[in-house]
Automatic annotation (TrEMBL):
InterPro entries: NAD(P)-bd_dom_sf (IPR036291), Sc_DH/Rdtase_CS (IPR020904), SDR_DHRS6-like (IPR051122), SDR_fam (IPR002347). Keywords: Oxidoreductase. This is NAD(P)-dependent dehydrogenase (Short-subunit alcohol dehydrogenase family). Transmembrane segments: none annotated. It comes from the Bacteria. GO terms for molecular function: oxidoreductase activity. Belongs to the short-chain dehydrogenases/reductases (SDR) family. The keyword Calcium does not apply. Pfam families: adh_short_C2. SUPFAM superfamilies: NAD(P)-binding Rossmann-fold domains. It comes from Nonomuraea thailandensis.
Amino acid sequence: MSAPAALITGGTTGIGLATARTLHAEGYAVLVTGRDPATLARARQTLPPDVTVVRADSAAPGDADTVAQQVRDRFGHLDLVFLNAGVGRFAPLEAVDEPFYDEHFDVNVKGQLFTLQRVLPLIADGGSVIFNSALGAARGQPHWSVYSATKGALISLVRALAVELAPRGIRVNAVSPGPIDTPALTKLGARDGFLEDLAARVPLGRLGAGEDVARTVAFLASPAAGYITGVNLPVDGGLSAAVPA
């Protein structure tokens, strides 16, 4: 019997990279995608040698065809698709222009949808699809309007696709990470004390780790979650449940 196979978009850094390591340790054959040459090179160096690292831009539907062909050639099927690739930049409404808007929706929504469309014939009946949304889809924050809109769109996709793909037993869910200690968060919180202040707002008293999200993805893909579909699961240390300070 062949190993279960997983595709992780945006799998060369942060949450995606942690998920690749976690799934590989659980026996998955793993293919990750990324578009930045530096993170692609680091992923090839740091991930186990049997993890496949493929350059692909989630905003380019033609690259999704390449990814599907790579999966077909290497694995022949998929059991798990983690649609994790995303961009997030923040700007007040008056500073939003069409390129800013298009970049976010092209990567965070269009890219995820068409990647799933291209690999759908390869997903085994009973497989699992997981989108990476964000806490910002449900909590209003200044300057997050476009980013939050893309993440909210993913949650709507999850509900519709969970029903559409249910006849094949394919479960579709989302995770919504809160503040996770990744390079992206570090870059966002460059000012002194930002990360400490953010951690203090989390009821569990710490920032999340990429592995916290990775283990949640592994759970949602496992038989233990076999009757769960169409849900968005926060991974945020209780932040979404807390009364704002």
